[in-house]
Design brief:
The protein has two domains: about 220 residues, Rhomboid-like fold; about 35 residues, no CATH class. The chain has 14 helices and four strands. A two-stranded antiparallel ribbon has the order 1-2. A two-stranded antiparallel sheet has the order 3-4. A hairpin with an 8-residue loop joins strand 3 and strand 4. The radius of gyration is 28 Å and the shape is elongated.
Length: about 290
């Protein structure tokens, strides 16, 4: 997972022009347009645009993308509030990450959702794809980047974003646990792939934060104490102790001068010598290499 996270950062660094500037603006505008079309066509627009695996396999390929713009709310007041909220968190993430990384994050969540939806057809004929979970993971990303941001819950109660994010995670798992037998058999096989898709996208982009949290709560303590793990702080302390006992840190293997006696000298380690051998600036390129 760390390699994927590093690969994302390298890609965004090497391709700064990748992405759509102001992506959430277009998502919000298209969602509002579909909402208005639904209002005047008795939800005909959503019926044409929502994700339908069978229809896609029969040539209606636009459904691979248009499900992103299906309105989450059916009342205009909640629609307006929701669109302003998602526009706010989307632009905030983009300003923190940059256009390339935010666009890649949004596309990764969308592509994984579609891929997992088709994969779920192997065990269930019911395919559920909704932009609700993708929008929720946007909020989780915002809360990770801006944990202390204040959000007015129902326009009144100010709550920090990190607590709302924890509440969302709790509700997600609680809703799964409290499902009745009928829902588990019918909905869960198609619901879990959609959740897994957006959570996988989040894990790839926030692996460093997730690892830090796991270390803080003790899940990675066993790994940190293993013999194969280099304890950097301990090694530094041991090295400082050795240096204090010897009275120097670097000593030339040819002339014997040290950094304590000659603080203006530069010392380097030779990469061609077997083992670790230090040389001063006068002998780093003028010495007999150690072979064993």
């Amino acid at each position: 997972m760390k390699k994927l996270c590093d690969a994302v950062d390298r890609f965004c660094l090497n391709h700064p022009r990748f992405g759509i500037p102001g992506l959430m603006r277009y998502v919000v505008l298209l969602t509002a347009a579909v909402f208005l079309l639904d209002a005047f066509s008795q939800n005909t627009a959503s019926a044409i645009l929502y994700f339908d695996a069978d229809a896609i396999l029969h040539g209606e390929v636009w459904r691979l993308v248009t499900w992103l713009f299906i309105p989450e709310y059916d009342r205009i007041i909640w629609m307006v509030v929701g669109m302003f909220f998602y526009y706010f968190i989307g632009t905030s993430i983009e300003s923190y990450w940059g256009t390339a990384k935010f666009t890649l994050f949004y596309l990764t969540g969308a592509v994984l959702t579609v891929a997992f939806a088709f994969l779920s057809r192997l065990w269930t004929p019911l395919t559920l794809v909704s932009n609700i979970y993708l929008n929720n993971i946007l909020f989780l990303a915002f809360a990770t980047l801006y944990p202390d941001a204040l959000i007015r819950f129902y326009f009144v109660l100010p709550i920090r974003a990190k607590w709302l994010a924890l509440f969302y995670v709790f509700l997600t798992f609680y809703d799964i646990v409290r499902m009745d037998t009928w829902s588990v058999k019918l909905l869960l096989p198609s619901l879990l792939p959609m959740l897994a898709a957006v959570w996988l996208a989040y894990a790839v982009f926030f692996w460093d934060r997730i690892r830090e949290i796991l270390e803080n709560i003790g899940f990675l303590t066993r790994h940190n104490r293993s013999r194969q793990t280099i304890q950097f702080k301990s090694a530094v302390r041991q090295q400082k102790k050795k240096d204090s006992q010897r009275g120097y840190r670097h000593k030339c293997a040819v002339c014997g001068r040290t950094d304590t006696d000659f603080p203006d000298l530069e010392f380097r380690y030779c990469s061609r010598c077997a083992g670790y051998h230090c040389y001063c600036q006068d002998h780093i390129f003028n010495h007999v290499h150690f072979t064993e």
